[in-house]
Amino acid sequence: MAKILVVDDDRSMREFLEILLVREGYKVTSASEGKKALGLCKRHKFDLVITDLKMPKIDGIDVLKAIKEISPETMVILITAYASGETAVTAMKEGAYDYLEKNFDVDDLKAVIKDALSMKGIKKETALFMKDAEDALSFGNMIGKSKGILKVYSLVKKVANTTANVLITGESGTGKELVAGAIHENSSRKDKPFVVINCGGIPENLLESELFGYMKGSFSGAHTDKPGLFEIAHKGTIFLDEIGELPPLLQVKFLRVVQEKTFRRIGGTKNIKVDTRIISATNQNLEQKAKNGDFREDLYYRLNVIPVRIPPLRERNEDIPLLARYFIEKYSKEFGKEIKKISPYALQLLTKYPFPGNVRELENIIERSVALETTNIILPENLIMSGTSGMNQDTALNDDIPEEGIDLNEELEKFEKLLIKKAFRKANGSKTKAAKYLNISFDSIRYRIDKLDIQGF
Fold it and tell me: Residue 228: inside a domain, yes or no?
């Protein structure tokens, strides 16, 4: 049974809310003014506080601020007869979940309370933004506390001081280079070179000379002898990203390096022996490529001595608040800003977003949000996520219908998404206000958000 505190100097409103909430099955306590409310919060734990904005001596914003100091995880909803955009921004900055005008619909209030209580667990994560950086679980430059990432930490520690080849798998943007770097930094080779090469980012005719080097005069433009990256990584670690993109001819030469630790420069006749730890990474199913004949099977098994899989961000949802905080601190320093927090609703949007681009995409979203934000807290309107931009509002209704026709339902859905997002921006992230702007009920806007899979505003 959730515990709710109602704070209002208007006796009739206070009693109305008490009766309503008790009927809904909540345990309700009430206070006639802010000072009494704060005294109750110091003695008891409340899941939710519903407070009036305009009260004598201590107003609702001050009550909100004090509650967040006493009990950061307590959700707060403001009720006001004087709603404004400025009030909404102030409330969001201080950590309010939402605010309602006093002529609210009872069903709207019930829905907002239900949403706020369901968000209480996520709000606990938001409190981490107020703690010191060392409280975040990290390993090397990796950050997270989910079971999936903790398994990666454990495996990295076990394999770091071995010489076994490691194959890191994971979707694009999951942080495969960070894992490779952590293996190197926790090994006895940490004071030696850590050399990174992207096998898919270098043209085939240049990749061989980058890996193995060349001798003077071996081809046009080879004016001097040049060591390859394997030589540079001697006694250290070489990390080959996108190993699945290695061309077939180079796979043969690469196999020799893996097996014998020797190679020849282009145009050279002398075998060069190196002591280099090999770590590879791929976002492809390399095993399947090997079975299909698109990648040498013997090379695959040589590289995949110790497999390390990095889970996608959608499988480690609880790491999003930690990662978001880290990136907020990083880009606040870089841009010379004082942003240290993210609004609960903005964090909710992030935790519900599937992140097809994984941690890299989250970093880009936070970097953009910090750059755009003009306050000291990340607000929902500055979260721009892929697939959420909708149609261009200036041209949405002006484009001609092409000869092949259009999908009317699809176009109507796009326009509906656009209008809902505009309403949310105008309402400063409040579902209740956005619904009023669109002249629909609170339940209706929640239904449309779920139906249209709207992830950001």
Answer: yes
